[in-house]
Design goal:
The protein is an alpha/beta fold. It has two domains: about 350 residues, Zn peptidases (Aminopeptidase), CATH 3.40.630; about 80 residues, Alpha-Beta Plaits (2-Layer Sandwich). The chain has 15 helices and twelve strands. α1 crosses α15, α8 packs parallel to α9 and α9 crosses α15. The chain is globular, with a radius of gyration of 21 Å.
Length: about 450
């Protein structure tokens, strides 16, 4: 498998002709020219042309967008247990250092940690935004919004109709389709397949727009390289599913005004009129336990019950209907990590052989991306997690990739590097999907 990953990266990924098209990004996405490198080059070129907003005008927009009662807090937390308690108090942990964490918390929840002497620094979110994102793009136009994502998926399915099909796995709170591109040489749509299956999911969390780009452009890469021997083998022998944008309502809300809203959750109107449920705390894996918040206003609010949200329910029905799924990748940002179960418990997975597979796969994907492989709960305990549920329910080898960056909004210049390294890891996952146990035999 390691030999394949290296040869694929060298002979396929970087040998593609770096032709540059003069079309705009919008025209490229709608056209028949669906070359992986062409699209990446155009995204990079658009960013370089100055889509980023000048510093003097970006900060006021961020300040306006951030005025929603949240605070950016740095607090003491020496280990995963301390971090877990902060999550339960309503802190949405964003950054982890040796003895402290930083993240977002609602003003009304702030006393629950400040009163315990844990807070090192706190400031209104608008102040934090003004300090740290003065060159922040008002609209990262190189990123794909919901319509552009849908159009590109449609174009891929149309151009490659012999091996690809596009279906909706369900509707969101606001009625948007959740699109899934299926790549299989013998089965289309919802037809059953005996082939081992792999599932890639992006954008559980609205503000993590980079987590849409990686699976979306992996789909482009697969179709662009469909004739390469190794890729052809995957298409012929596997059942591949790609859901780039699970939370389109939240993602669209986050960019609706041209200023980011720091939205994490979906767009559920809660009982107290606050907005949103954290979809990655809404799965039935120790639901509502450690590391989740029961405050509806909190960014890590788990919801009233497991699978209360149509988006997580769509994944539940999708996975349970496909007993052939062997591997799963859920993309998030940002921590530069490859995480494996459990996330909702300190315990290791009980099957010793499975643990070896998780460690081996995470280590290889970490090598290919430069990310740190680790058990998810070593970061902090968070129940209701996608990957814990997928493994417990279907014994699927499920991973979370925390993508790179220094914020949720790192600009468009990061797309090229992030996508290329994660394509290698995504392809590696395909290389073991037929039988994950072979890597430890």
């Amino acid at each position: 498998m390691r030999k394949f990953a290296l040869s694929l990266a060298l002979t396929v990924l970087y040998s593609l002709a770096p032709a540059f098209a003069a079309d705009s990004a919008e025209n490229i996405r709608a056209s028949a020219n669906l070359s992986f490198n062409n699209i990446l080059n155009q995204l990079t070129a658009d960013y370089a042309k100055g889509l980023e907003t000048p510093a003097q005008s970006a900060a006021p927009e961020l300040v306006q967008a951030a005025q929603d009662g949240r605070y950016w807090v740095t607090a003491y937390a020496a280990d995963s247990h301390a971090r877990t308690r902060l999550l339960e108090a309503g802190l949405d942990i964003v950054e982890i250092q040796k003895d402290r964490v930083s993240g977002l918390i609602r003003k009304d929840a702030l006393p629950s940690i400040s009163g315990k002497g844990l807070v090192i620094e706190s400031m209104p979110l608008e102040e934090y935004a003004g300090r740290h994102f003065k060159d922040f793009p008002a609209a990262d136009a190189a990123y794909h919004n919901y319509k552009e994502t849908t159009d590109l998926l449609n174009a891929l399915a149309t151009k490659n109709s012999d091996i690809a099909s596009l279906t909706s796995i369900g509707k969101t709170i606001e009625g948007r389709d959740i699109w899934c591109l299926r790549v299989n040489s013998t089965a289309k749509g919802a037809a059953a397949s005996p082939k081992p299956g792999a599932l890639y999911i992006g954008n559980h969390h609205a503000r993590e727009h980079l987590s849409n780009e990686v699976p979306l452009l992996f789909a482009v890469w697969l179709m662009d390289n469909r004739s390469a021997p190794e890729v052809r083998k995957y298409i012929d022998t596997l059942d591949i599913y790609i859901i780039p944008m699970l939370n389109p309502d939240g993602a669209e809300y986050d960019i609706r005004t041209g200023s980011y809203k720091w939205q994490r959750k979906n767009m559920r109107v809660n009982s107290d009129k606050t907005i949103g449920v954290d979809l990655n705390r809404n799965y039935d894996s120790w639901f509502g336990g450690q590391g989740t918040s029961h405050y509806p206003s909190a960014d890590t609010y788990c919801g009233p019950s497991a699978f209360s949200e149509p988006e997580s329910m769509a994944i539940k029905k999708f996975v349970e209907a496909r007993k052939n799924l062997k591997t799963l990748m859920s993309y998030h940002s940002y921590a530069s990590s490859i995480l494996y179960p459990y996330g909702g418990s300190d315990a290791d997975v009980p099957d010793a052989q499975d643990k070896k597979v998780f460690v081996k796969m995470a280590g290889e994907m970490g090598r290919l991306t430069g990310y740190t492989p680790e058990k998810s709960s070593d970061m902090y305990i968070a129940t209701g997690d996608t990957c814990d549920w997928a493994y417990t329910t279907g014994k699927i080898f499920a991973f979370t990739t925390e993508l790179e960056g220094d914020s949720f909004y790192p600009g468009a210049s990061i797309i090229d590097k992030t996508v290329k390294s994660n394509v290698k890891a995504a392809a590696y996952m395909l290389s073991v999907t037929d039988n994950p146990y072979k890597i430890v035999q």
